[in-house]
Write a structure and sequence with these properties.
392 residues, alpha/beta, TIM Barrel, 8-stranded parallel β-barrel, 17 helices
Length: 392
């Protein structure tokens, strides 16, 4: 099965770092965080050098937090205010500048890994999640504005997002498909990926330069399922808490192995295409009673990406018990657990449908919060300029 672009090594028991073991087991470690401070202080370079970080993901909440801290954005915001930029224009320019600079920091990783890693993701406006045409247009605009080959455009895996994914991939734009909860939707995402690459191949594009990951959300599944288990309150129900998210992801990995073992994929692989790797997202542990690294250490498998908040990265570095591959061979047990939930009356489809709907809403809320933060900053500098003018 020719689907993994790098051969994992067996972790050395004497390894100096659990992160080294994780990387050695075939997991690409990405950071779910970005700020101008992270770039300009050299901290991102340090994480790449010392903590095995080989990629970055972003979202509106991350950008809003970065803008609210410190003064590293002040000069650019002041210039935007003086120019009379709209909030949307300011958000676009502020975020694309950070992502472009992060792409430059990660470019050596991109080159060393033949385009597999060294990627930075930026999100299409989530208010467009139900609009295929508008999503495609914004993906193109972001791709052109950042103008770096190691960029990923994040597109939600809504029904309307699927054809957008195929279209932009066919044009040579690399994609991080986000907000995946169900295995059925994941199959549709992989189909959209294959369709996009087939169209790119027909157009004569170099498939080796087109990348993609499929971001499968983990901890949010447990948050929703645990709520339902606790409402049942039986010993059996309570004993299943904290297990659904990992089981779901393990089934997703099995599905990934199936899809990327087909003749359809083999044709694309012969044309130098890279597989669309599973990416474990939402990996911060929200329940304090669970092991604080479990969404990393229980999802170790060759050829996957795990994007971690800074706190989770530090926890894994400190005490993550990396035991090698913890996914392969677990399909039957994982499927059995989801069957057990169904028998208790917890509908998998209902859970994943609700999570997708809530996920889109949360993305939009985060985007609006980012716009609010930028609006406040623009107003602050506009007021400052007005005061300066009045004093002359």
């Amino acid at each position: 099965m020719a689907m993994n672009d790098s051969t994992p090594t067996t972790p050395d028991p004497s390894s100096r770092s659990p992160l080294a073991d994780l990387s050695g087991a075939g997991v690409s470690i990405w950071l779910d965080d970005l700020s101008r401070e992270l770039i300009e202080t050299g901290e991102l370079e340090r994480l790449i050098r010392d903590q095995h970080v080989v990629g970055v993901t972003t979202n509106p909440t991350i950008f809003a937090s970065a803008l609210a801290k410190g003064e590293r954005y002040s000069d650019q915001v002041q210039g935007l205010a003086e120019r009379g930029a709209s909030v949307d224009e300011a958000v676009f320019e502020l975020t694309t500048e950070d992502v472009r600079n992060a792409c430059d920091v990660l470019r050596p990783v991109y080159d060393e890994t033949n385009g597999i890693d060294g990627r930075v993701s930026i999100e299409v406006d989530p208010r467009l999640a139900r609009d295929t045409k508008a999503t495609v247009e914004m993906a193109r605009t972001l791709w052109q504005a950042v103008d770096r080959p190691n960029l990923f455009i994040k597109i939600p895996a809504t029904v309307e997002g699927l054809p957008a994914i195929s279209t932009v991939l066919s044009e040579g734009i690399s994609v991080n498909v986000t907000l995946i909860f169900s295995v059925d939707r994941y199959r549709a995402v992989m189909n959209a990926f294959l369709t996009g690459l087939e169209q790119a191949r027909e157009a004569g594009r170099d498939l080796s330069r087109i990348g993609s990951v499929a971001s499968f959300f983990v901890s949010r599944v447990d948050t929703e399922v645990d709520k339902r288990l606790e409402a049942l309150g039986t010993d059996e129900a309570l004993g299943l808490r904290g297990k659904a998210g990992i089981a779901n992801a393990r089934i997703a990995y099995h599905t990934y192995e199936e899809v990327f073992s087909t003749p359809r994929w083999d044709v694309l692989a012969e044309a130098q295409a890279h597989p669309q790797r599973p990416l474990w997202a939402s990996t911060g542990v929200k329940n304090p009673y669970y092991p604080d690294t479990m969404y990393v250490t229980e999802l170790v498998a060759p050829g996957v990406v795990n994007t971690m908040p800074h706190k989770t990265l530090d926890l894994v570095a400190d005490h993550g018990p990396v035991r090698g591959d913890t996914v392969s061979g677990t399909f039957d047990e994982a499927a059995g657990l989801l069957d057990q939930l169904e028998r208790l009356g917890i509908s998998y489809t209902d859970v994943t449908d609700k999570l997708e709907e809530e996920g889109v809403d949360k993305f939009v809320t985060s985007w609006n919060e980012l716009c609010g933060t930028v609006s406040d900053e623009l107003a602050r500098f506009s007021a400052s300029d007005s005061t300066s003018e009045a004093g002359r």
